[in-house]
Amino acid sequence: MNKAKYFSRRRLLQIISATSSYMALGSVSNLAYPAEVASEADLNDWNQGDLAHLIPVASHEQILIKASFNSALTQTPYLQIDDRRIAGIMTDSEGQFWQFYAENLDADHNYQLQIRDVNGEQLTDAWPLKTFPLPNAEPEHLRIFAYTCAGGNEDLVGDDGSRHFLQMASRHQLIERGLSFNPDVVIANGDHIYWDQKTLAFRGEGFKQPWLDMYAEFGTLDPALPVIGSSNEAILKRIVDPQIAKLYGVRFRSVPVFMLTDDHDLFENDEAHEGYISLPPEEDKLAAARATQNLYYPEFLPDSTRRNDLQGSSSADRIAGLSEVYGTFRYGNLFEALLYDTKRYSTFNGENATLFNVNAEGWLSSRTAADDTAFLMHIPSTPIGWSAGKLGDWYPDVRQSDGSLGTEIEKPYWPVGWWSQHQRVMEMLSSQKNRPPIIASGDLHAFAFGEIIKSGEIDMQDNPISCICVGSLGSSGPGFPTIFRGVGAEIPTDLDVNEPFTPLEKNGFTIIDVTPEKMVIKMYAWIPPEPVDAISTLEPFFTKEILTKNIV
Questions:
Q1: What is the pLDDT of residues 490-538, one digit of tens each?
Q2: I need a surface site. Which of 85, 288, 367, 468 has the fewest CB within 10 A?
Q3: What b/e string do you get for 42-72 counting C-beta neighbours within 10 Å, with b at 16 or more?
Q4: Do residue 363 and residue 428 come from a single domain?
Q5: What region does 497 belong to: left with phi over 0, alpha with psi -120 to 50, or beta?
Q6: What percent of the chain has pLDDT over 70?
Q7: 238-269 pLDDT per residue, tens
Q8: Which residues of 435-470 are buried (b: 16+ CB within 10 A; e: fewer)?
Q9: What is the arithmetic mean of pLDDT over 458-468?
Q10: In 149-274, at which residue ranges do the beta strands (DSSP E only) sit?
Q11: Where does a domain end: 78, 104, 130?
Q12: SS3 string of 403-434?
C-alpha cells in the first residue's frame, strides 16, 4: 500500500499550502510525505518513472544530485529525504534537467530518497543514499570503484569497421561488475565526453570522416551563442546524452560519484599545432564544458578545508561553495582524496607555467601536510609516472623518430614550468613521514602501477610514491595510445619507476579497499574480442597491498 496517498483532504490542503510557501522561498520543508523505505525487492525492480539519468555525490553533511527526465516537467519536482522536502533547481531552459541540493544532514546516515511532484505524487520509487562519516570518525573500511575515460559515442565506427569507443552494452557490464563489489564511492577521472572540434582538422581522413558525419547529424555548436537558451542547447544534449545519460542511467543512484574533468571534457584534445593550442580552453569550449557539468554530473561539494577562492569555485551561476575543478573526498580519519583538473587553468609562460595555479597548489600542499587521515591520495586528471607524449603531460617526452618516447626531439610548445610544478607535487607527497604517498591518475587509457623512486634530482628510495592508473571504461581502437599516437605509455626520461608490469591497454576498472592497516588495489581488465559474458566473473589481473607507515 502506498501510505503517502491516504491523507485527509484537510491535511492535504495544509501540505499544499506549505509547499507553495517553500516554493516561493526555494527552500526545504518538513512534510508528512516521508520517502518510502526501499526494500531489497524494490531495488532489484526499481521504478525510475520518466527519469533518464541520476548521478549523486555526497559528503558527511551534504548531498547533490544531477538528474534529467525523458520529457520536460512543467512544475518543479521535489526530492524527499526522509521527512524533508527539497525543491529541485532547473538547470536547462526547458525543465528536462534538474539538480537537488541538501545540506545540514546527519553524518553516516542511510537516507531514504524519492522524487515527487508538487502534489506529493511519486515520480520514482524510493532509494537509499548514505552520507559519509564525520571527518573525525573512525571507519573500519572504505571501498572505491575507480576508472577513467568512460565517454564516447558507441556509433562512431571507421570505414574499416573499427570502433572508436567501446559498445555501451559492454560498458554497462563493466559498471555492473564494479557495482557487484558494493563500493562506497565511485571516482570517474575525466574524459566523460568526446567531441573534439578544432583539433579534428589535424587528423587523417580515415579517422576524421566518421566524426564529420556525426557532426553533420548532431549539429555544430555556434561559438557566438550561449550554450543554454539558444540552438546550442539542443545540440549539446544530443552530443552528451549518448555519452553520459545513456551510460549511467540510474545505476549509481545509491553510490556517490566524484567526476573529475579533463581535456576532452573541454571539447578538445590537449594538443598544439602552428596557429592553434587547445589549452587553456577558448571561452566557447569552457562554456560548453561548464554547461555539460551543470546539466549532467555533480560539482564537488563545499569543504571547510578547501579555499572558496580557487578557480572554478563559488561561481555566480552555481550553488555557493561548489567547485567545478578542485574536489575533496573525506571519509572519516581513514581516507582523504584531493581531486584536481590539470588542464582547464593551465598556463604556458615558460618557467613560470603551471597546470593549476598557485592557490590550488597551496591547498594541495596544506592538505598533504595535515596528516590527519590514515591514507591520503592525490587524484590529478593528468597521469603522474607515465607519459604518452601528449602536450598536456607533466613531462617533455614526445615520440621520437624510432617510435619510442624521449626528449632528444623537443616537444613543441611544452613549457618547462609544468615539470617544476610536478617536482613540487613530488616533494609535498614524499615529505609525508606518517603515511604512504599515493597518486591515482586518469587519462592514460591504460592500467599501470609503479613506485617512483627518483624524479629528476629528488631521491625517494626511502619513501617511494605509489602511482596508479585505474583503467579505461570506454576506450576502443584509436582511443588507445598505441593506435592513436603509435606509442604506448612509457616511463618518462626524468623518472625512475619500479613497475611490475608494462602499462596495459585494456578496458576495465580498479577496486581500492582501505582499512586502517592497509590499502589493497585490485585491477580488473577486459577487451574485445573476449566474450562479454566473461565480464560478470572478472577477477583481478593485478593486486597490490600498501601498508600504513605504522604497520611493520
A1: 999 999 999 999 999 999 999 999 999 999 999 999 999 999 999 999 9
A2: 367
A3: eeeebebeebbbbbbbbbbbbbbbbbbbeee
A4: yes
A5: beta
A6: 92
A7: 999 999 999 999 999 999 999 999 999 999 99
A8: bbbbbbbbbbbbbbbbbbbebeebebeeebbbbbbb
A9: 96
A10: 185-189, 257-260, 272-273
A11: 130
A12: CCEECCCCCCCCCCHHHHHHHHHHHHHHCCCC
Cis peptide before 183 (omega within 30 of 0): no
Write out the three cell numbers for 3. Answer: 501510505
Collapse the DSSP code of 138 into the 3-class scheme (helix H, G, I; strand E, B; otherwise coil) and give the result: coil
- Domain extent for 125: 27-130
Judge if 250 and 209 occupy the same domain.
yes
Contact (CB, 8 A) for 344 and 261: yes
Q: What is the DSSP letter of 131?
A: P
Give Cα separations from 130 to 58, 80, 113, 406, 499 (angstroms).
Answer: 8, 14, 10, 47, 37
User: pTM, whole model, 2 decimals?
Assistant: 0.92
136 in a structural domain: no
Is 399 in the same domain as 261?
Answer: yes
Q: Residue 14: its pLDDT value, please?
A: 34
Average pLDDT, the chain: 91
Which of 28-37, 329-338, 384-393 shows the highest mean pLDDT?
329-338
Q: Of the candidates 97, 130, 163, which is a domain's last residue?
A: 130
CATH of the domain at 203: 3.60.21.10
Q: For residues 433 and 435, what is the distance between their CA atoms, to the nearest angstrom?
A: 6
Q: Quote the crossing angle between the two packed helices 205-218 and 231-240, to the nearest 10°.
A: 130
Average pLDDT over residues 207-234: 95
Lowest-pLDDT range of 90-104, 185-199, 200-214: 200-214
- Which amino acid, one-letter code, is at 113? L
Residue type present at position 208 = K
- Asked if residue 268 belongs to a domain, the reply is yes
Looking at the structure, tell me whether residues 116 and 148 fall in a common domain: no
Q: Are residues 125 and 157 in the same domain?
A: no
Distances (CA, A) of 289 to 203, 221, 228, 336, 530: 22, 12, 12, 26, 34
